[in-house]
Amino acid sequence: MEITNESLGIYLTNHPWLFLIIIWVVIWKALALWQSARRGQKIWFAALLIVNTLGLLEIIYLAYYYFKGKRQITPDSSIK
Asked: CA 22 from chain center: how many Å?
């Protein structure tokens, strides 16, 4: 079976949810890869790049390393 641009277009027309899934995965993967690269976490970067879990691994990574750090309260931020 030969895949052409026309057959791909027909497939995406018949399955519009596939395009939404692709956008979802690309956004989460980009955010997670960006953060792991900035932190110098080579193993996480490789895992996030290779493993495709429809954004689940990326969301878990971001929740643990990125969002967790944003919510930490420091002693200096207390109200006096």
From this structure: 11
Buried b (16+ CB within 10 A) or exposed e, 7-19: eeeeeeeeeeeee
Q: pTM of the prediction?
A: 0.66
Please state the rounded mean pLDDT for residues 73-80: 50
Q: Concatenate the DSSP letters of all residues of 7-73 into one string.
A: HHHHHHHH-HHHHHHHHHHHHHHHHHHHHHHHTT-HHHHHHHHH---TTHHHHHHIIIIIIHHHTPP
* Distance of alpha carbon 38 from alpha carbon 41, whole angstroms: 8
- The amino acid at residue 23 is I
22, two tokens:
């692709």
Evaluate whether 47 touches 65 at the Cβ level (below 8 Å).
Answer: no
